[in-house]
Specification:
Elements: E1 4-12, E2 16-21, E3 24-29, H1 32-41, E4 45-55, E5 58-64, H2 67-77, H3 84-93, H4 96-105, H5 108-112, H6 119-129, H7 147-161, H8 166-179, H9 185-194
Antiparallel strand pairs: 1-2, 1-4, 2-3, 4-5
């Protein structure tokens, strides 16, 4: 198993990172927690802890900023019906300590806040993982993005991929979000393209 990868950060988006190691570029799926850690890091050389998943329809490499995040991801995907994408969505929408607290206290409503997690799925996560999670040693200053920030980052990634200048679009999105109550990435992108 590949336990970690260290190399130069060649590309980063809210959902993936590309790390070059000895001439090979590895695409790793990441959470917004890891994205924020990499973005704040300012280092060209980075290290991500990895989970390599082999399925009939493909191979996927996941990257994590900490061993604790990877351990929680592995626990989450051990739950029946929870795949890698849902686990990453959970890790993007809630902090590691929030997920652990929700599971420990049986807070179905907290887990249900995440898109794709219904009452049955949240209940199954709690049932299967309660009492099995290690305590978190994640620094308090690293928190996941707020829903508005997630909206902005997703829209920004899409606009940059369309060829727009990042800083200009970032300022424009800030202006739009300050004066309106946009709730979807699509609506935010349309608003940015109209202005």
């Amino acid at each position: 198993m590949i336990t970690h990868i260290r190399g130069s950060l060649e590309e980063i988006e809210p959902t993936f990172a590309v790390i070059e190691c000895h001439g090979v570029g590895y695409l790793l799926k990441i959470s917004l927690f890891t994205y924020e850690c990499l973005r704040k890091s300012q280092k060209k050389e980075v290290k991500l802890y990895t989970y390599y998943q082999v399925k009939e329809d493909g191979h996927t490499l996941y990257g994590f900023a900490s061993k604790e995040e990877r351990a929680l991801f592995e626990r989450l995907i051990s739950v029946s019906g929870i795949g890698g994408n849902i686990a990453l969505t959970l890790l993007s929408g809630l902090s590691i300590s929030e997920i652990q607290t929700a599971i420990s206290n049986g807070e179905v409503h907290t887990l249900q806040k995440i898109k794709g997690i219904g009452a049955k799925t949240a209940g199954r996560i709690i049932l299967e993982l309660k009492g099995k999670l290690p305590s978190s040693n994640i620094p308090a200053e690293v928190q996941p993005l707020s829903p508005t920030a997630v909206l902005k980052e997703d829209a920004l990634a899409a606009l940059v991929s369309l060829g727009f200048e990042r800083k200009t679009m970032e300022n424009k999105l800030d202006e739009i979000l300050a004066r309106s109550e946009i709730q979807s990435v699509e609506a935010l992108i349309k608003a940015a393209l109209k202005n």
